[in-house]
Amino acid sequence: QFRKMRLRSGRSRIHERGPFAREPIVADKMVIEYVGQNIRQAVADTRKKRHAREGIGSSYPFRIDHDTVIDATERGNLARSIH
């Protein structure tokens, strides 16, 4: 059974912003799912260059395997700020 954990976004000493749990985190329980667009590595490479050109300072790609990336830059959730 999956239940959404209560999280909040706040200022972080590690990175600009980050998620903080509003309840105890139990071992072996899922905290949050990384949400974004499922894209190929070639598309991720193209987006990285475009983001640099457009001055987008933070992008949030998460590599799944050799050719699969979840890109949370435009359509992500709070999980993208976990570092």
TrEMBL record:
Residue ranges constituting the SET domain according to the UniProt record: 17-81
Compartments (UniProt record): Nucleus
Keyword Cell wall biogenesis/degradation assigned: no
The UniProt record lists the keyword Thylakoid: no
GO CC annotation: Set1C/COMPASS complex
GO BP annotations, alphabetical order: methylation
SUPFAM superfamilies: SET domain
Keywords: Chromatin regulator, Methyltransferase, Nucleus, S-adenosyl-L-methionine, Transferase
Gene3D superfamilies (UniProt xref): SET domain
GO molecular function: histone H3K4 methyltransferase activity
Signal peptide: none
Pfam families according to UniProt: SET
Principal place of residence: nucleus
Protein name, UniProt field: SET1A methyltransferase
